[in-house]
Amino acid sequence: MNRIYTFKTILWTILGFGAAVGTARFIYGLGVTTNLSDSVPWGLWIGFDVMGGVALAAGGFILTATVYIFRLEKFHGIVRPAVLTAFLGYIAVAVGLLFDLGLPWNIWHMIIFWNPHSPLFEVGWCVMLYLTVLLLEFFPIPAEEFSKLNKLRNFLLKLRLPLVIAGIALSTLHQSSLGSLFLIMPYNVHPLWYSPILPVLFFISAITLGLMMVSFESKFTSWLYRRETETDLLAKLCSAARWVFLIYIIVRFGDLAFRGQLGHLGGGEWQVVMFWVEIAITALIPVILLSIPKIRIAPVWQWIIPMMSIFGIVLNRINVGGLVHINRGNTLYLPSLTEITISASVVAGAALVFLYMVERYKIWEKRPADPNTDPTKIPEFDFASRTSLGTPEVALRTKYSLAFILAAAVGFALLSTENLSSAGTESSPAKEARGWETMWIDGDLDGEGTAFPHAKHIDNNGKEKSCVLCHHMNLPLDNSSQCSACHRDMYLLSDAFGHDRHASASGAGLKCFDCHKKDLTKNADTAKPCKDCHGDLVAEGSTITVENYRTIGYVESMHRLCIGCHSQKADSLEKPDLPRCANCHKEKRTIISPDAGVHPHQYGAEKDNVIFPIVSYNSEQPPDTTNTGSAVENSR
Amino acid sequence: MKAILTDTTKCIGCRECVIACKKTYNLEEEVPRRWSSDDGLSSRNWTSIIQKPEGKFIRKQCRHCLQPACVSACPVGALRKTSEGAVIYDSKKCIGCRYCMMACPYGIPRYDWDQPVPYVRKCILCYDRITQGKQPACTEACPTEATIFGDRQELLGEAHRRLKETPDKYIDRVWGEKEVGGTQVLYISDIDLSCLTYGRPLGEKPLPTRTATAMNAVPYTFVGMSATMAGISWIIGRRMKIQEKPGDDQREDNDE
After folding, report:
1. Topology in the membrane (chain A) (predicted)?
2. Rounded to 5 degrees, what are φ and ψ at B57?
3. Which residue on chain B is closest to A117 by alpha carbon?
4. What is the CA radius of gyration of chain B?
């Protein structure tokens, strides 16, 4: 198969995954589909899609400046692909931003609600205006094909110089303003990156990135379509880029020296390593390699140098955009697969439109020849099914669609169901309770819990008859199932019923209508109550009720039992403070049990910056956890 | 300008302020989420109590800076500083860019990560209540007067009075008096409060002034860049014309 078709199939496959993941992002929200958090509000989508994307599309304004302002006509051949790349690049930025924004349908608010103090406001406006400029710059190219549009086309061509100038001015503004975004975070951004001249650094690096991107794109599409590369032009571009690289290095290190931050460079932190890697592949190595004329025109190096530099500057954007921010709250951010998929599919979509434009309109001097338009070629049969897929063109479309749909289906199937159904709730399984005189109940093991006077509760509620008041359902053939057997998560709804187990032939083997009434909707509310079959499920006099098979989480069920019972007792015993939270939740601590010697779980002794004192009790000094509520009164 | 003064030596960690806040704004019960942070603040907890060793408690909430970074950062003006000093949020304007969360030096604004239609959430200094002449729910609920509400100047005076009267009891500093241009939520304490800024010492320069320099340059850059480009284009165009003028001979030379 021709490499262009393989490449397009890959792009369609990525787009298919993106379709599945993108749908999930809008249905379920950002929390469960990304790895963003309150500590890391910006991630890959801002760093790569928006900041990287805008910088990657800088080639448009640089080449229009070269050709139409500086009149270097020899670059005329690559100005059209550069403008197309810029146009599609900015659309990709906008699309990527729609995924990242929490309320993307409000994006037009920037037009009517103004805050001129905000660099983001300025970036938004510049990008909107520049997209319009790019559209007007690009429009004449496809308009060539339609004679009806000639008038409009000629009018736009007359406007070209003002448009080019506006494009350059707007690009200068927002390329640099992306750097201004971070001026307000002097305490977040690492000192090796934070600088009052961030806007300037961003602008210079955008120029190098634009030049490198044009070279890389030309190289790559030549390889893709097996057409001749403009080696001469690329060598000239690279030679020009060399000077910009040099300026970038001087400004970057000059700025560090001026701010007195050179001392940071010797450190062994990962940020320092990151800085050196970034600056080396962005500028240091390319500038050395490009000074050697032999390397400048060598085809292999024309591949490697742009790729290296592009990666370096995009890495710079990702770094400034959040990676090297001094961490708030010890959270490590790595983009989730979802985020990577969306980023990749935005790029894939832009690439597909680019390839379509290149094949359909006169972007290059020579339109790439499509082997399938060869009239002598005969339709082929699909090698697997031995059926005809139609003419080569139709066959290709079928194959691309198939790749897209299959990928979307697989994408939907692979969506992490655990994360989505738990709505981001952290799993914190309940643990076995122990029947000491005083029990430490701390289901989520965070060191916060309550000392529960178990023995006292037994005494006050009728000795051994009291067990059933609180301890409820057991698994079949089990006398005391752990809470966690059913309440698998502290806070989530639990399925205490097990529909499959009841319905399957190997389980209870019931038919639908054994439990659900015939004329009604089949759901939990219309089903037979559990106790109709399981008479011994809940003991007489128990405070536990089972309405349907969905039960609330462990914490809630514990609270419901305690608070409900305490509220009743508060009236009868005339102790109004009994149901108050502080009656049980007195302080955070772990307890050494008097019965068991040492508590088997002395966790939480030190968690983050919070230290919980370990309190030990002996039999002479019983813990002050009686039901009197006096402790609360004293403390108030 | 209204303000809140929190005296950590008086706080007993009862969380009545947290509960009052949750009741006032009908905030849902908090459950541990993947995106929650250690300080206890979230889109459902606009104030929280951080427990430090030896039973010290620090209440965390929005500082309502005098020159708020979040207000200056918001591209659509969804965050606003009122004349009373509260930094309030208009969910109808918000586009969800989360730049405010990035800009805040105290890391206060939190996001409804679990919602398909998410908003930014933070303490709004009970703006409705203070315009009605009431005090915020949290200060009203505090049983020990550890956190009190009043005029900023008066509370600053009160803070300095306490520092002067019992210097052994406190660290000689009012947190929020000068940092990032001053905040309206002030602290006096017997322990270091650097945990409120993730251990980073904040300077006195207000954050919005840092972007202002760059933003003020925008119109000049635009005009300057346009003029330069137009000028260059004109000069080069003219030179090329002059070169062409002598006749067609030169052009032919060039072609060869």
Report:
1. Multi-pass membrane protein
2. -125, 140
3. B72
4. 27
> Closest by alpha carbon to A553, among A477, A444, A467, A480?
A444
pLDDT digits (tens, 9 = 90+) for A13-48: 999 999 999 999 999 889 888 989 888 899 899 999
Is B195 labelled a binding residue? no
Cα–Cα separations (whole angstroms), residue B173 to A7, A239, B145, B157 = 64, 58, 20, 12
What is the ipTM metric for this complex? 0.90
Interface test with B, best of A72, A118, A177 (most B CBs within 10 A): A118
Contacts of A180 in chain B (CB under 8 A): 211, 214-215
Distance from the first to the final alpha carbon of chain A: 80
Q: State what percent of residues in chain A have pLDDT above 70.
A: 78
Does B197 contact A37 at a Cβ distance shorter than 8 Å? Answer: no
CA distance B27 to B9: 28
Contact A442, A604 (CB under 8 A): yes
Q: Are A310 and A286 in contact (CB under 8 A)?
A: no
Helix (H) or strand (E) holding B6: strand B2-7
CA–CA gap between residue A403 and residue A409 (Å, rounded): 10
In angstroms, the CA A308 to CA A327 distance is 28
Question: CA–CA separation, A481 vs A486, rounded Å?
Answer: 9
Strand ranges in A102-238 using DSSP code E only, listed in sequence order:
none
Give the residue extent of every domain in chain A. 34-333, 439-635
Picking from A339, A341, A345, the residue whose alpha carbon sits closest to that of residue A44 is A339
pLDDT band at A618 (very low <50, low <70, confident <90, very high): very low
Confirm or reject CATH 3.30.70.20 for domain B2-206, answering yes or no. Answer: yes
**Residues whose CB falls within 8 Å of the CB of residue A293, separated by 6 or more in sequence, listed in order:** none
Q: How far apart are CA A314 and CA A216, in angstroms?
A: 14
What letter represents residue B256's amino acid? E
Q: Which helix (H) or strand (E) segment is B3 a member of?
A: strand B2-7
- Asked if B33's CB is within 8 angstroms of A117's CB, the reply is no
Whether A521 contacts chain B with CB within 8 A: no
> Which residue's structure tokens are 């860019």?
B97
Compute the distance between CA of residue B76 and CA of residue A617 in angstroms, rounded to an integer: 58
CB A494 within 8 A of CB A551: yes
Spatial distance between the Cα atoms of A485 and A503, rounded to a whole number of angstroms:
20
**Chain-chain contact of A71 with B221 (C-beta, under 8 angstroms):** no
How far apart are the CA of B43 and the nearest CA of chain A, in angstroms? 9
Q: Which residue, A349, A361, A320, is CA-closest to A52? A: A320
Closest-CA residue of B relative to A40 is B102
In the prediction, which pLDDT does B30 show?
A: 73
- The total number of residues shown for chain B amounts to 256
Span A91-115, pLDDT tens digits:
999 999 999 999 999 999 999 999 9
Phi, psi of B81 (to 5 degrees): -100, 120
Above pLDDT 90, what percent of chain B?
Answer: 65
Per-residue pLDDT, averaged over B202-209, amounts to 92
The pLDDT of residue A612 is 33
Tens of pLDDT, residues A334-371? 888 899 999 999 999 999 999 999 888 888 877 776 65
Name the CA radius of gyration of chain A, rounded.
34
CATH entry, A34-333, from 1.20.1630.10, 3.30.300.30, 1.10.10.10, 1.20.1560.10: 1.20.1630.10
Domain boundaries, chain B: 2-206, 209-255
Q: Is B100 known as a binding-site position? A: yes
Angle, alpha carbons A322-A53-A405 (nearest 5°) = 105
Q: CB distance A41–B229 less than 8 Å?
A: no
Averaged confidence pLDDT in chain A:
79
Under DSSP, the state recorded for A516 is B
| Residue where the block lists tokens 């996001």 | B111
